[in-house]
Amino acid sequence: MSPARKPGASKVFDMPDPVQTAPQRGFANPSDPPLGSRRYAGPERRSHGTRTAQWFGPMLDEIDYGMLLLDDQLEVLHVNHVARAELDAQHPLQLYAGQLRARRPLDVAPLHDALQSAAVRGLRRMLSVGEGAQVVSIAVVPLMAAEVGRGAAMLVVLGKRAMCGELSVQWFARNHSLTLAETRVLAALCAGHDPSQIASHQGVSMHTVRTQIGSVRAKTGAVSIRELIRQVSMLPPLVSALRGAPVGGGAQAHAGSARLPTATALEQAAFDELHA
């Protein structure tokens, strides 16, 4: 029987990398020389690699998940746009002296163990850090070295702090011709608020909110509120072009998660961006 986990301790799950533990047909065995050492790497290939590499950063910035690239010395090599916005004063992780560190003392050892396990043993790890409303799940994924002599690297993916991104809600609303009022109701439903809370916050009657929900369901073909939220949650993660203040991310959005969405200047700007 495994020992009981101490209250407040981080949850950690081992996930051996299938590529490293069970090579399949068509994939290189980890003990074999890396592909880079067996393939021709003439000038044209090196030129193509250089052109490709310049797009990796912008590509990662367009994905609505915080992602960090670390080397085998646990030094941070790259942080995408969403991760920079997410790692605010409210997040249980922080960037300090070029490294990813935990704010809470109880999270320091589990985080370090997960990173070391990925760097040294090639294990994928998933763990939860923080406490209360600030709990966030993260995944640590080992990346195989591309060339002989090059150290290992790790990908750290930050879990979402909101089920549905604000921009995804806005895109969904635009594609289904929802009004701004219907969009606000949809955003509130996706944030976990019930119709009575929405009516109270918006200063309208329950009948008005239920009518708006019915209209949204009719336009989207959703048979229930649960189905409606499922449709939005399965959309591709999009990042707003308003890089200065990502819609639905950062400290302000998380600190105000208990409040219902209103027609803020940022929301209106996102609405205008999508309907331009």
Strand order of the largest sheet: 1-6-7-8-2-3
Number of helices in the DSSP assignment: 13
| Average pLDDT | 75
Strand elements, count: 8
* Cα shape: elongated
Largest sheet: 6 strands, antiparallel
- Taking the alpha carbons of the first and last residues, their distance comes to 60 Å
Low-confidence stretches: 16-40, 244-268
Helix proportion of residues, in percent?
40-55%
Strand fraction band?
15-25%
Q: Whole-number radius of gyration?
A: 22 Å
Order of helices and strands: EHHHHEEHEEHEEEHHHHHHH
- Structural class by sheet pairing and helices: alpha+beta
Features:
276 residues; alpha+beta; elongated; 6-stranded antiparallel sheet; single chain
What does this structure look like?
It is a single chain. Helix content is 42%, strand content 16%. Helix 7 packs across helix 8, helix 8 packs across helix 10 (206-220) and helix 9 (195-202) packs across helix 10. It is α+β, with helices and mostly antiparallel strands and 276 residues long. The longest helix has 17 residues, at 105-121. The strands form 2 sheets. Strands 1-6-7-8-2-3 form a 6-stranded antiparallel sheet. A two-stranded antiparallel sheet has the order 4-5.
Short recap of the structure:
The protein has 276 residues and is α+β, with helices and mostly antiparallel strands. Helix content is 42%, strand content 16%. The protein starts with 11 loop residues before the first strand and ends with a helix.
Topology:
Layout lengths: L11 E5 L1 H4 L13 H4 L4 H11 L2 H6 L5 E5 L4 E4 L1 H6 L6 E4 L2 E4 L2 H17 L1 E7 L6 E8 L9 E6 L7 H10 L4 H11 L4 H8 L3 H15 L4 H9 L16 H6 L9 H10 L2
Antiparallel strand pairs: 1-6, 2-3, 2-8, 4-5, 6-7, 7-8
Helix pairs in contact: 7-8, 7-13, 8-10, 9-10
